[in-house]
Structure prediction request, 172 residues.
Amino acid sequence: MRPTRQKLIVIIAIATLLLTGWFPAGNVELAAAAAGNPFAGIRWIPNAPDEVNNDPQLQIVARQQSVEWFGDWYTNELMAQIVDQRVNAIATAGGIPLFALYNIPYRDCGFYSSGGVTTAAAYQQWIERFVAALQNRKAIIFLEPDGLTVTECLNTQQLQERYSLIAYAVRA
Prediction:
């Protein structure tokens, strides 16, 4: 069963609140550390609140670190350049960048965000280019957010290819 778009937005909003530290420090932070949470103690680097207008609600959002998305809208070279720049900037400020990779073949089954590369080989090359741009530096990566949940358009062979490509990306 495919979750509704509203349900996905709520899930993403909750994850964002957890990752950006909107919940009060103290009990949540202690519980996260005690549970072996890999995100405990990470310094989140805010966006530039000066770049938004005087709207207090926009200022709150702007003070949170955001996830940068990469997909077929960038060439491999430009993607690598942006990754390198963002990792350098955020690491220099003492934080860890947040990246979402969103370029798998048959992405989103042609729904809201259709696209992605067209072959498994192109995806593997894209992943290799991303990993090379990281240069063994730390980053938090959201790998193909729809990759395991939006699969109803895939036949058995395409589904196996999807799982294989996600496994490849995780290993990389």
In short: The first strand starts at residue 68 and ends at 71. Residues 92 and 139 are 13 Å apart (CA to CA).
